[in-house]
Amino acid sequence: MASPLHVSTPTELLSILLLQAAIWGSDSFTVSGPSEPIVAMLGTETVLPCHVVPPMNVETMELRWFRSQYSEVVYAYRDGMEQVAEQLVDFKGRAELVKDYISEGKVAVRIRSLRVSDNGMYKCFFKRDKDFEEATLELKIISLGSGPHILMVGPEDEGIRLMCTGKGWFPQPEIQWKGEGGEKLPSLSEDETQDDDGLFQIEASIIIRDRSKRDVSCSMKNPFFLQEQVETISIPEPFFPRTSPWRAAFAVTFFMLVICLGAVVFLAWKEKQAKKRVQNAEDERKTDRQAKEKLEKELATRKELYQHDWTKANLYADWRKEYFKAVDVSLDKNTAHRGLTISGDGKRVSLKKNVVQNSDAPPPQGPGGSGTIFSAVGQNCFATGRCYWEVKVLGEKEMGQGAQWTLGICPETVNRERWFVENTENNLWLVAYKEGKVMTLTSKPESLKLRSYPERIGVFLDWEAGDLSFYNMVDGSHICSYTGINFCGKFQPYFSLQGAGTSMTICSASGQTENVPSSSAETSVTHVRNCDTDVPQETNTLLSP
Question: Collapsing DSSP states into helix, strand and coil, what is residue 426?
């Protein structure tokens, strides 16, 4: 045994007192949790409490509850805020901080809808500056399942075999057979399995040979909650096997009884399954109806928000139509390139067969330069208002090698007598398909990352707002926009083609189809400079037909 402390001088006593005062005055702390396991029922909720000693306000501390590893975060609190990004997926939406007494250093994490996987050890971690402490907690999840149920299997080994079953238990229950007088009977066999939710299913069997033990009970008990469930069966005397002439009759009787019992059970099961199918069908219809109502409500809310400030939104092509006038665009046959074929109704343009794809003159230098450009313009001219039209292009799989298309708008006053570059520098506002990519044609052409290739393109022109936008009318997604344009004079729809077999078709204004708006498409918005009214006319020229 250690000898008691002796203080020989007043100086030593003063030193000890000063040291003790320094310890008492220190700002260090410890973290404590429950010393006993926390027991909670499956599917309910529980709290994992921790507190600091001495009591102090821990609102500015970093608080963390985690499993075996620091990174396995159940709940994290730092800088006065919940840190959801660090949380394990299994606990998102199920864990919250209880901080009614946080100023006294007492906090807890509440976990809802407890699962079998929540069972186990936890740690709570408190950190202030460079000081930190942690405590360990244990959570035990319990589930009192169904059963026990005793089934009389039949004669076996000069006795009656009984089967005791139960399911939905956690942890594994203790199973015990007992006779009429309460004496314990050993099981012949025990088999346990776990389902996908981690719950135990138990089967135990026993053979009763003693006719005096006709009342037999089977009990299942949760080892932590200590709650026991019991079922008792009484075995009729005739069911025990006899070494007599009536043994065959008994076997036949028992067999018939089992058949009858099986038939009753089967009919009851079949009726239950039929009711279950009807209920499932009704539940599915109800779920579908609720999902439809929710979608309709969400779309109505989105449309209301869109209508409130639609000019700032680039989604929902069909809703945008409500603010634009559909125009019936027709191609001008007289100004179309001689290598193009225009249909009789002026709606379809295609490249003639065996047409020379490139002229002998060299193309201009710079981005967007090309050889012969086979172009056509619409007869319509725009100088005010909002309007739109739709154009159908060939599918990506239908496009031949080297096929290209370009569409948008161009000035009515362009000179069409020499080589030119299709881009915004020449006051052409276009979207194009070249080299297998959809792109904008600015001074530095930019490829667009789209969700899908647009086979039907809507062109929306807002003259006063200086905005030209392109949409994929198949799924309603936004392709790109030119904004802040200072339109000068009148503009016409513009079309150009490259590659044998390439064509475009203008959809009639009366044949526009409605599409469900899609908010998930990837869009690209291109902001460009205003047009310059001092640009010489020859900089906006097209190749003459």
Answer: helix
d(CA 35, CA 52): 14
Name 189's bridge partners: 205
| CA gap 450, 462 in Å, rounded | 23
The widest CA-to-CA distance across the chain, in whole angstroms, is 122
Looking at residue 544, its pLDDT comes to: 30
Burial 337-374 (b: 16+ CB within 10 A, else e): bebbebeeebbebbbeeeeeeeeeeebeeeebebbbbb
Cis previous bond, 148, omega within 30: yes
The single-letter code of the amino acid at 332 is: D
pLDDT greater than 60 at residue 43: yes
Tell whether the model's pLDDT for residue 4 goes beyond 70: no
Using CB atoms within 10 Å of the CB of residue 303, give its burial: 0 to 12 exposed, 13 to 18 middle, 19+ buried.
middle
3-class SS at 412? coil
What are 311's two structure tokens? 């000019």
Phi-psi region of 190 (alpha: psi -120 to 50; beta: other; left: phi over 0): beta
Does residue 492 contact residue 412 with C-beta atoms inside 8 Å?
Answer: yes
Residues 214-240: pLDDT tens digits? 789 898 988 877 788 899 888 887 776
In the beta sheet, which residues pair with residue 40? 141
Q: Report whether 464 contacts 384 (CB < 8 A).
A: yes
Taking the C-alpha atoms of residue 272 and residue 489, their distance in angstroms, rounded to an integer, is 77
pLDDT, tens digit (0-9, with 9 covering 90-100), for 97-113: 999 999 999 999 999 99
Q: pTM for this one?
A: 0.42
Provide the 8-state DSSP code for 353: T
User: How big is the CA angle at 523 (ends 522 and 527), to the nearest 5 degrees?
Assistant: 155
Cα separation, 359 vs 339, in Å, equals 12
The Cα 148–Cα 401 span in angstroms is 74
